[in-house]
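Whiteboard transcription, Tuesday session. T.W. wrote the structure tokens on the left side:
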């Protein structure tokens, strides 16, 4: 596939990028600093800012699908970028997008109708990052795209095991953590298989 990628230099995104290239996909990645990516015959690097609509559009042109592993970075980058991605995909006639979110935007088990970050399920006192992911989720849910949001809980660096639990729209019961490696492993597989389109997917051991 021809994949447009955002967030390819992050903790999960870099692992996803490496796996996608190893699997033979062609990737166009938007980054602020091209020096952070190693050259690869199947990788095209676009230098720019995802908050700029024209940069997002340039990255998406000619793609079959879109991947975003953007973090919140204590800013509004995510909530500003996702509408640009949606607009670019609609213009190009692209349907499939997979993003990395957070378990905070999964359904609350404690407060019916709420999300985990504002329903009392999360121990985090600061909610700014979850609010950014919530905005991204709302934008995708309101679109006509085939979207999936992979929602890891506590996310330490770690290698891929291939053994984990996933659950549509909820965190698996007693899920405590998931490694960056296994989050990337599931995300790459789901991008291709599309078994969870239209869902936030909780992932944990």
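and on the right, the sequence the group agreed on:
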């Amino acid at each position: 596939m021809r994949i447009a990628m955002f967030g390819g230099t992050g903790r999960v995104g870099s692992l996803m990028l490496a796996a996608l290239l190893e699997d033979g996909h062609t990737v166009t990645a938007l980054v602020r600093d091209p020096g952070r990516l190693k050259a690869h015959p199947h990788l095209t690097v676009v230098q720019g800012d995802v908050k700029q609509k024209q940069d997002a559009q340039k990255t998406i042109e000619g793609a079959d699908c879109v991947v975003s592993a953007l973090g919140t970075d204590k800013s509004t980058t995510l909530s500003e970028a996702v509408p640009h991605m949606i607009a670019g995909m609609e213009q190009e006639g692209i349907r499939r997008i997979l993003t990395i979110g957070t378990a905070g935007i999964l359904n609350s088990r404690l407060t019916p109708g709420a999300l985990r970050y504002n329903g009392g399920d999360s121990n985090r006192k600061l909610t700014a990052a979850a609010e950014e992911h919530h905005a991204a989720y709302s934008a995708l849910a309101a679109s006509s795209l085939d979207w999936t949001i992979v929602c890891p809980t506590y996310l330490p660096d770690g290698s891929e095991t291939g053994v984990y639990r996933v659950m549509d729209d909820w965190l698996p019961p007693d899920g405590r953590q998931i490694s960056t490696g296994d989050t990337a492993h599931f995300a790459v597989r789901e991008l291709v298989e599309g078994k969870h389109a239209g869902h936030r997917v909780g992932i944990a051991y």
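Someone added at the bottom: The chain has one domain: 2-204.
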